[in-house]
Design brief:
alpha/beta, Aldehyde Dehydrogenase, Chain A, domain 1, Aldehyde Dehydrogenase, Chain A, domain 2, 2 domains, 6-stranded mixed beta sheet, globular, binds NADP nicotinamide-adenine-dinucleotide phosphate
Length: about 500
């Protein structure tokens, strides 16, 4: 990859539609515009529409109006629209990756990987659209028949975070459209550009007007609350922090909405005595440093068998210390900026707290001066059990390492959190692997691998990491209702 020029940056920004997309029309927001910033420079990239409550309601009106036709639309055609959008994203992967790096900060190669991952959800669900089925059974007493059918849930509100600007959208939009639901999408205000491009791509792929509506807004609470409380809405799918997820669940209780909640994480990464240490370090780098550590699946804490903990920590320090930090558009950069100053301050605080509790800083441990929200890759050893860095979601390039004496202790430490999204386990002992996997209180486990995300697999958590699954055959079920018909013969 050669370094990107300013004119290439302007070109990709210029082609993004910056208005609201409602009922097949691009239109201005009644609240004016809101700025989108490059986290590597702190400078504004462009302005996008700022929706009012009435704009948001108009988006729901459009979704409600388009609902019945879309539910009846032939599944094959629904799938083909998604498939065309998949192809378009793949064809335009380079420009979309640059756009994502500009708004979110991650290095271009990582943005490209997200583009491919995001597109994969459209391909997967284009194939699932024609596999929605039901059951026909003879009643146990032999009299009458039990018919079970699947129908689209109805109008959905999809709210997404900034850390994976496209994939968190396609993971919801793909199955919703495949199932025959219409949607209102609300991307994070810090990274709306990738989703605006997705709306344009779906429009060009032939998605009928009103099936997907997109609103960007500077006040999500003000614009979204009336939709969540509107009885015409039937489902809310949310990806974001546990704190906001809880609030939205409360709001959604008025309408008893169907809910999918993909929330925060605090993933443990366990390395046992017999693990292949080279593989564990490679896996740890991916699990920790993917997305600059700003992933719900990021390894938040490394629990390592005491015999190998020191070696693991020093190898991690060597690797993280040699990573190149900089603007994601520059050649060779491996670690971009954090999303904003608040996030960087939180990471700093967690490191200071750990050091205050006796942790040793093996590498990093500070912010970078100058423009942008950079924080150096950091490894902490001898981290005390009560350090906040082990308990809270870090969302930054900080790897705390702590030792364990036994398998029981490792499992207990891994589960000692209110979160339950994912865990990583490194061991060569199959029996131990299965015992540990069964003992972990998480929705997902990476067994001898540092990444679990796959469009064909059910992604999701338990405990305070939420509920519902995205991807895999389970993903489309979140957008389907089961109707049972008692048939009198
Ligand atoms: P966030 O602050 O919870 O925001 C997520 C989305 O919710 C944004 O679009 C935000 O809009 C919107 N929002 C905030 N308050 C709202 C309200 N009162 N009503 C309606 N919408 C509201 O989370 P974030 O900082 O963007 O994302 C990071 C979090 O997401 C982390 O905790 C991470 O673990 C989690 N995450 C989870 C998964 C998963 O699959 N489990 C995947 C990725 C990320 P604004 O932009 O306007 O604030």
């Amino acid at each position: 990859m050669s370094t990107i020029t300013t004119s290439q940056e302007h070109q990709v920004i210029d082609q993004v539609p910056k208005q609201l997309y409602i009922g097949g029309q691009w239109r201005d927001g009644a609240e004016g515009t809101l700025a989108v910033e490059d986290p590597a420079t702190g400078e504004a990239l462009c302005e996008v529409a700022d929706a009012s409550v009435d704009d948001a309601r108009a988006a729901l009106d459009a979704a409600v109006e388009a609902g019945p036709d879309w539910a009846q639309h032939p599944p094959r055609e629904r799938g083909e629209i998604l498939r065309r959008a998949f192809e378009a994203i793949m064809t335009r992967a380079d420009e979309l990756a640059l756009l994502m790096t500009l708004e979110m900060g991650k290095p271009i190669a990582e943005s490209k990987a997200e583009i491919v991952y995001a597109a994969e959800f459209l391909r997967w669900f284009s194939e699932q659209a024609v596999r929605i089925d039901g059951r026909y059974a003879v009643a146990p007493n032999g009299q009458g028949r039990l018919l079970t059918m699947k129908q689209p849930v109805g109008p959905c509100l999809l709210i997404t975070p900034w850390n994976f600007p496209l994939a968190m959208g396609t993971r919801k939009v793909g199955p919703a459209i495949a199932a025959g639901c219409t949607v209102v999408v609300k991307p994070a205000q810090q990274t709306p550009l990738s989703m605006l491009m997705l709306a344009r791509i779906l429009e060009e792929a032939g998605l009928p007007e009103g099936v997907l509506n997109l609103v960007t807004a500077s006040s999500s609470s003000r614009t979204m609350a009336p939709l969540i409380e509107d009885p015409r809405l039937r489902k809310l799918s949310f990806t974001g922090s546990t704190e906001i997820g809880r609030k939205l669940m409360e709001q959604a209780s008025h309408n008893l909405l169907r809910l999918s909640m993909e929330l925060g994480g605090n993933a443990p990464f366990l390395v046992f005595n017999d693990a292949d240490l080279d593989a564990a370090v490679e896996g740890a780098l991916i699990a920790k440093m993917r997305n600059i550590g700003e992933a719900c699946t990021a390894a938040n804490r490394f629990h390592v068998a005491e015999r190998v903990a020191e070696e693991f920590a020093s190898r991690m320090a060597e690797r993280l210390g040699s990573m190149r930090v900089g603007r994601g558009t520059e050649e060779g950069v491996q670690v971009g900026p954090l999303i904003d100053q608040d996030q960087r301050e939180k990471v700093s605080e967690l490191v200071e707290d750990a050091v205050g509790h006796g942790a040793r800083v093996l590498v990093g441990g500070h912010s970078r001066d100058g423009a942008g929200y950079f924080y150096d890759p950091t490894v902490l050893a001898d981290v005390a059990d009560d350090a906040r860095v082990l308990r809270e979601e870090i969302f930054g390039p900080v790897a705390p390492v702590t030792g364990f004496a036994s398998e029981e202790e490792a499992i207990a430490a891994a589960n000692d959190t209110e979160y339950g999204l994912v865990a990583y386990v490194y061991t060569r002992d199959l029996k131990q692997a299965l015992r540990v996997v069964e003992g972990l209180q998480t929705g997902m486990v990476g067994l001898n691998q540092g990444m679990v995300s796959n469009a064909a697999a059910p992604f999701g958590g338990i405990k305070q990491s939420g509920f519902g699954r995205e991807g895999g055959p389970e993903g489309i079920e979140e957008y389907l209702e089961t109707k049972y018909v008692a048939v009198n013969l």
